Amino acid sequence: MKNRLLIFIALLAGTTRMSIKAESLDSIIPLKTVVVSANKIQVNRNSVPLSISVINRDQIEASSESALLPVLSQRVPGLFVTQKGITGFGVSEGAAGTVNIRGVGQGNKVLMLFDGQPQWAGIFGHALPDTYVASDVEKVEVIRGPGSLLYGSNAMGGVVNIITRRHDQPGRRTQARIMYGSYNTQKYMINNGYNIGNFTSFISVNHDRTDGHRPDSKFHITNGFANLGYKFNDHYKINGNLSLAKFKNQNPGKTNDPIFDNIMNVTRGTTSLGVENNYQKTSGALRLFYNWGDHKINDGYHTGKQPKTTLFRSDDHNYGLLLYQSFRLIQGNSFTVGLDYKNWGGHAWNDNIQSGDKANDIIDKKIDETAGYAIMQQDLFNMLSLNAGVRYEHNSSFGGEWIPQAGIAFRPFTGNAIKASLSKGFRSPNLRELYMYGSKNPDLKPENMMNYELSIGQYWLDGKLFTELTAFYIDGKDMIQAIPVDGKDKNMNTGSFTNKGIEFELTYQPLNQLSFDANYSYLHTSKPLIAAPEHKAYFDITYSPGRFVFNVNVQSIFDLYINTNTKKKEDYTLLNAKAMYRFGTRDRGFNLFVKGENLTATRYSINEGFPMPKAIVMGGIDITF
């Protein structure tokens, strides 16, 4: 495998001498080339050393998905998301929605962001997959590798920055969608964008419900989102948003060990306010954010057992302040400094089901994190970019942590980029690991890892074809594991791991009506890992003659561990398709569409004991006016 990889890199590097006209690069979609997640300011993707995948609005819209994560799982190499049903991820027992990047992700090691602001549950630290709604997203930037330099804890394995929608075009635009399909699955969406003068707004409401493909697996959720902005002048603007989600999920348990009355009622919310400045030589922002949750969970009972007499209750929070300023004082140079403050935690207890009175307290804790960082990028001769930075973060539980990062991007030929980087990622222990249940250990240190990577990207055929090959090596240590100590399990910093592999991306648009997208990732791990497939491949073709749009895509997963103790693996291939016909224009008209998932009715599981549904068919109408 190693020899084949070296030969592949050598061949790709040698062929970069092919001539590509400079003016052809102007036709590349700007969303594919401009990113903000790498330096906190807009930079060209090819000038930063990190591996960053960008999923734009058109790709999200074409999926007709209400949830965002399945789109990312297909289109981002090295990223994998666990699923357990037709829609909905849930929380607690049997939950899905874990995001892994390069085999790193279990235990909140991939950081989810809304417009650069961290989002996770304050007590258990897990991500909030049911709150990531596709209709509210303008684009997604995925850092495949540590993002702890800029974003701190939980960005150990990578960063998923969800950039929310704003209505920047003058006037109003309203979109509505209705979908119905297998297992009485219903999806409703309406959003409205409005722009007058210096004021902009975008508001949306989504509602999904399904009976589920198994008994006792019903799910329904309502999401609301509002994003408001005002531009004072050419230098200052203010933006605020609010996102609310309320869902009810029933977990049927594993097929060989069903569970009854395991019902979860959850309310989640997040809000933020930001003031941005933009001058010729400097730009930056001050952002305040707050996210919270209220959970009421009946843990249910198994066959032969008695129903629970208590409900698990919790409310948690995660709030903070982000301040950064970037300076461009020297030709080709940008220097960004920032300060972060975060406070996260919450209260968990049990209530008596019959009386509603509190039965007992479980935890009532909070943790402070304060950090400062600096990152510099210098462009030389229009072909070389040097990037380096350092962060120091202090946590009220474990103390301080230094985070370095450095890299280089070399563009020897038009349309070519060769990038290399090393970066450190870390994850703070969450409240459960520190203070809850029998395995708790308040003396835990953060987990951390070093990531080394090299990538070669090239535009071909006057910019119609883009390919990128990335090789990476990860060395992790101080992983938190429950191990026997004096006859009892205790969380300890004892684990280590190495992950290595390659990732390949390809996009090709030979005609205006025809496009191809493909990606492949290979992952080798030093120990079996859940939700980290060794091989992951995706191929997508879209053909849009006239008013029709036809799409077919295939995803293949091989050597996916679903149980590391028994070494049980899954291999599966999914065939999906969609057909659409448009009446009127894109901004004034409606689309009729039908889509099918897993059309070959493949039997497979991602979470052990939770078989995924066989063929799913959905149809709907999408109206814009």
Features:
6 helices; mainly beta; Maltoporin, Chain A; globular; five-stranded mixed β-sheet; 625 residues; 22-stranded antiparallel barrel
What does this structure look like?
The chain has 625 residues and is mainly β. The protein has one domain (2-157, 188-253, 265-624): Maltoporin, Chain A (Beta Barrel). It has six helices and 32 strands. It has a 22-stranded antiparallel β-barrel. A five-stranded mixed sheet has the order 3-8-9-6-7. The protein is globular.
List the helices and strands and how they pair.
Blueprint: H1 2-14, H2 30-33, E1 34-35, E2 43-44, E3 52-55, H3 57-63, H4 69-75, E4 79-81, E5 99-101, E6 110-114, E7 117-119, E8 137-143, H5 148-151, E9 158-164, E10 171-181, E11 185-196, E12 199-210, E13 219-231, E14 236-250, E15 253-254, E16 257-278, E17 282-302, E18 310-327, E19 333-352, E20 358-380, E21 384-395, E22 399-410, E23 416-427, H6 431-435, E24 447-460, E25 465-485, E26 488-511, E27 514-525, E28 535-543, E29 548-563, E30 568-584, E31 589-597, E32 616-624
Parallel strand pairs: 6-9
Antiparallel strand pairs: 1-2, 3-8, 4-5, 6-7, 8-9, 10-11, 10-32, 11-12, 12-13, 13-14, 14-16, 15-16, 16-17, 17-18, 18-19, 19-20, 20-21, 21-22, 22-23, 23-24, 24-25, 25-26, 26-27, 27-28, 28-29, 29-30, 30-31, 31-32
